[in-house]
Hints:
By secondary structure, this protein is mostly helical. Helix content is 62%, strand content 4%. Strands 1-2 form a two-stranded parallel ribbon. Helix 1 crosses helix 6 (109-127) and helix 6 (109-127) packs across helix 7 (139-155). It is elongated.
Amino acid sequence: MMSEKIKIENTRNADSRTATEDFTIEELKEATETHIKNVGKCMDFFAEKIHEAGILHDYTKRENFYEEYGPLCMSRVVDDEFKANPWYKKHIYEERHHVNEDFKHDVNFIDLLEHICDVVEAGNGRAGHLSSAYMDIDPKLLYLAYWNTIQLLDKNIEVEDEEYRDYLER
């Protein structure tokens, strides 16, 4: 699991709106290439977070499998009875990807991608088709996930240039 911040280099000369002084075309090219590299680091951060979510997916099914999840599934209970089970409630509230059943205020696009993968795989793999019952989500959730994802990335970025950090703090 990623624990270090994403180290990026300053790119103030990649745009005239942020440059602090005149710069050459070569400095513009270098800053632009650095910007592209920095964005790649951010994308790598999300790729790693998505990979982690995939590995941890449905961890509540693995916990006490033979005592909880297995017997519940083997009992062939109907939907309402299944959802009333204490294991199911724990599954919904602890796992981040059940975005249409538990409104988490820190939801992000990683949670949404895991949700999409879950419902599409489960629909096709189990029933042979997708079910709109699992696809409908509150549009406010998309807006919230957008801003939470921005904040997640922002909290995990650190500019390596000490002189630049000092400049920003002025």
